[in-house]
Each structure stands twice: as structure tokens, then as C-alpha cells.
Task: inverse folding
């Protein structure tokens, strides 16, 4: 990690019924994977960073900007945070075309804040032939590419990806994986990547945070954490 | 067409005007109330929900009488409006519109609320993370996605308003040219010797309007279902 402020400094407590999230971690540039079985709290962490959920206690700082701090009462609403959230099932707006979808975030940005230009995003994600289509006419892989473009074009401080390959078959995964790598390399944007697939962690991430039942059990370089320290059990790898 | 007399045309035109105004005025209120009931929790929510649906289950005459007690010139609200603004609903077509609006409102509310409840909340969350404030999210995402329900609810309310009789006649009586809508005109004909022909003519008009409303509603419903299928 460099001398810049970390991409995310996360420290939060949230109780919801039986589930308790009590986690803290930091992430740097590149891709940080949140890895663990379902019910570990990965999606809750993304929702807390995005401002979709509120922590009961804690402090979330993204690249020097305080998103939430329960001690000082600071809290940025989700539309003020400039985070790009990529959903597992894309969540494209069904009443808008692909072009209107991917430009959605730009409407709310001052021209100076549009740090990620339209043309290369359309090019890299192969969307030029799909711009006039409605989401209902897209395949799963196409939806996910459009969802990624929509999040990127809002020129976010950080990209949050919630199991973006989770709903796709293996062929589509192999199609999208290199695109995520290109996005990571060309736009130099920090990414928090939620997954329960160990192969995705090894291929994409430079840092991994292991989660289990709402707590961080380990964190570090994927090779070190996943191999030398035992990594997840077989049961956790197969858990959906 | 229909060989209507001038007085009958007046009743038809008045009916359409009353139904249109009732629907147009109900719409923003129904959207606000439906949104509050679908999305917020607040004390007294069940009570408000029940109150708004009351005209659906009360005898229309009771609704009309309650309107008279509230909005009549001696009513709590009516007296205030009369003394402050010189405005009254009593024996005016605006009163007919109020009665028809009150009767049609629950039907509209249900349709709009259902369409709000069907919207995937994560679409709104997505709009928020993309920089849309809650108001922009409502305008750009929630409202367009609820449009099928809003259209169907409006047609239901319009049709109900066209056919409304009991509440209207109780609240604003049956004055030709002012509060006599198609149903009250038909009622007057049935009370008059030799009025059968007029009643039949207006019945034909009523059936025609109802058929058109049904066809339009069915057409829009099909389109709405297509849109909803597109949600997948």
C-alpha cells in the first residue's frame, strides 16, 4: 500500500436479528476480495459502504472522505458517496435502454467530476451494439457488462462488486473475468470484490479479507492467507 | 348519436367532467398516500389505511352523508371554506366531483400501492449509489416503474366516478346542469311517467363509455404485464 489514504478504512458494528457484524479492515489500491461463506456478512459490508444500510457503531472512511462516523454523527447519504455498486443480478433499470442505463450516473455529475470517459468503457465492455436495447433483451453476461459500465461511468471513488459472476455459467464467467481485470488496470480504481469463489480471489485480488459469521478471521495477500494459513475449509468453499 | 336531448347531453358532459376532475385531483393524493403506505412505517398507519379504504365498504349513501356533514355549508370544513374563501361544494358540480373522487380513491390507491410494492427496492438503491437524490430516484425510477399501476388505478377511479350515484345524490342532490350526472338523470327518468326512452338512451351511453373504459384498461393492462415481464 502507498502513502495515500487507504481506499477503505472500515470499522463497523451492526446487529440484525441473530446476525451480528463486527468487522474492521483496510483496503488499498487494486482489488480487495471479501471472501467467506454465505451469511458471513460480505453483502452487509458492501451495503454499509454504499450507504444502503447504516451501522449502529463504527466509522467508514473512503479515500480520506468520511462516509459514516457514529462518534461524530457524520453520515453521507448514498447519493453523496460516489461509490459504484455492481449487483449480482445487475439491477439495470428495466424501463431504460442500455445507453440510458449506463449514462444514469453521469446526469448527476458535474462535467469536471466525469473522470471516466464514455467511449473507452463502451469499447472495453463491448457494449456498442447493445446501446439501444432494453435490459429484458440482454443475456446474463451482457447485463453484467452493462451494470459494470453503469457503475464505472458514475466516476466512483471506489467500485463495489457483489458476486458479479455469481449468477453466470462458467462460459460467461470466463468472458467477464478478463474484463474486470482490464477495468482494474486501465481505470486505476480501487475495487472491493465480494465472492465465495476461491478461484476468483486468486485470479483478481491483491488483498483478501476472510470473513466468517460477521467477523474478520484473517486478512492479507491471497497466496499467504489462502494457502499457508489453511484458508477456508472444504465446506466453506462449497457453501452458496 | 344516441338521439340525446340537450338536457341529456348536459348530463353526459357533466358526468365526464366530474369523473375527469375527480380522477385528476385524486391522482397526486393517491400517489403520495400509496407511497407512504407502501414504504414508510408510522404510528396510526393501519388506521389511515382503514380510513382511506372506508368508502369501499361503507354504503355510498353513508359516505355522501359524511361528506355533507364535513363539507356542507354547515360542516366543519365546509363552513370554514365558505367563510374564508366564499367557496362551497354544496349543490355544485365540484361537490359531485368530491363525492365521486372519494368513492373512486380507494380503487386507485390499491392499484398504485400494489405497483409501488412490486418494485425491487434494490433498483432504487442502485439509483441512489449512482448519485440520484431520493426525489430524483422517485421521479426517474420509482414513478416510471409504477406507471402501469397508476394508469390502471386512474381508469378504475374514472369508471367508478362515472357510475357513482349514492354518495353524489346524498351530498349534492340531483340538479340538472349542476349536479345531475348520468346515473342521477337515469334515476330521474325512472321516477317520471314516460321517461323510459330517455332512461334507455342514457343507459346506451353508459354502456358505451363503460365498454370503452374496459377495452382501454385491458389494453393498458396487457402493456403493463409486458413491462412487468421485462422486470426479469
Result:
Amino acid at each position: 500500500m502507498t502513502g495515500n489514504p487507504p481506499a477503505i478504512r472500515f470499522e463497523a458494528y451492526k446487529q440484525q436479528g441473530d446476525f451480528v457484524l463486527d468487522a474492521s479492515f483496510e483496503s488499498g489500491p487494486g482489488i480487495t476480495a471479501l471472501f467467506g461463506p454465505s451469511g458471513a456478512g460480505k453483502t452487509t459490508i458492501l451495503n454499509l459502504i454504499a450507504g444502503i444500510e447504516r451501522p449502529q457503531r463504527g466509522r467508514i472512511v473512503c479515500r480520506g472522505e468520511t462516509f459514516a462516523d457514529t462518534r461524530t454523527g457524520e453520515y453521507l447519504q448514498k447519493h453523496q458517496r460516489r461509490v459504484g455498486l455492481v449487483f449480482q443480478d445487475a439491477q439495470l433499470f428495466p424501463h431504460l435502454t442500455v445507453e440510458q442505463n449506463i449514462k444514469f450516473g453521469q446526469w448527476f455529475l458535474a462535467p469536471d467530476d466525469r473522470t471516466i470517459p464514455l467511449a473507452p468503457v463502451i469499447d472495453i465492455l463491448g457494449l456498442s451494439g447493445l446501446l439501444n436495447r432494453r435490459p429484458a433483451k440482454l443475456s446474463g453476461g451482457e447485463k453484467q457488462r452493462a451494470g459494470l459500465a453503469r457503475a464505472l461511468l458514475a466516476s466512483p471513488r471506489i467500485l463495489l462488486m457483489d458476486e458479479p459472476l455469481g449468477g453466470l455459467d462458467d462460459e460467461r464467467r470466463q468472458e467477464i473475468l478478463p474484463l474486470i481485470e482490464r477495468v482494474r488496470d486501465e481505470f486505476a480504481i480501487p475495487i472491493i470484490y465480494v465472492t465465495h469463489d476461491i478461484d476468483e480471489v486468486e485470479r483478481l485480488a491483491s488483498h483478501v479479507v476472510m470473513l466468517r459469521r460477521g467477523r474478520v478471521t484473517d486478512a492479507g495477500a491471497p497466496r499467504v492467507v489462502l494457502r499457508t494459513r489453511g484458508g477456508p475449509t472444504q465446506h466453506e468453499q462449497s457453501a452458496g | 348519436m344516441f338521439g340525446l336531448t340537450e338536457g341529456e347531453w348536459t348530463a353526459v358532459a357533466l358526468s365526464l367532467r366530474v369523473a375527469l376532475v375527480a380522477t385528476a385531483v385524486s391522482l397526486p393524493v393517491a400517489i403520495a398516500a400509496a407511497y407512504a403506505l407502501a414504504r414508510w412505517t408510522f404510528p396510526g398507519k393501519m388506521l389511515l389505511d382503514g380510513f382511506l379504504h372506508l368508502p369501499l365498504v361503507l354504503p355510498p349513501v353513508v359516505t355522501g352523508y359524511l361528506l355533507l356533514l364535513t363539507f356542507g355549508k354547515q360542516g366543519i370544513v365546509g363552513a370554514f371554506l365558505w367563510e374564508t374563501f366564499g367557496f362551497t361544494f354544496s349543490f355544485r358540480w365540484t361537490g359531485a366531483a368530491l363525492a365521486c373522487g372519494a368513492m373512486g380513491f380507494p380503487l386507485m390507491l390499491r392499484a398504485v400501492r400494489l405497483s409501488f410494492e412490486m418494485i425491487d427496492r434494490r433498483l432504487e438503491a442502485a439509483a441512489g449509489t449512482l448519485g440520484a437524490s431520493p426525489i430524483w430516484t422517485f421521479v426517474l425510477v420509482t414513478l416510471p416503474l409504477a406507471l402501469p399501476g397508476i394508469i390502471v388505478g386512474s381508469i378504475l377511479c374514472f369508471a367508478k366516478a362515472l357510475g357513482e350515484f349514492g354518495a353524489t345524490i346524498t351530498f349534492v342532490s340531483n340538479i340538472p346542469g349542476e349536479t345531475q350526472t348520468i346515473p342521477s338523470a337515469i334515476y330521474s327518468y325512472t321516477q317520471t311517467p314516460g321517461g323510459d326512452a330517455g332512461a334507455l338512451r342514457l343507459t346506451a351511453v353508459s354502456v358505451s363509455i363503460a365498454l370503452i373504459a374496459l377495452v382501454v384498461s385491458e389494453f393498458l393492462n396487457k402493456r403493463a404485464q409486458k413491462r412487468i415481464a421485462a422486470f426479469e
User: Anything to note?
Assistant: The domain at 8-238 of chain A is CATH 3.40.50.300 (Rossmann fold). Chain A touches chain B at residues 50-52, 77-79, 81-85, 87, 91, 93-95, 104-105, 107-109, 134-136, 150-151, 154 (CB under 8 Å). Chain A has one domain: 8-238. The mean pLDDT of chain A is 91.
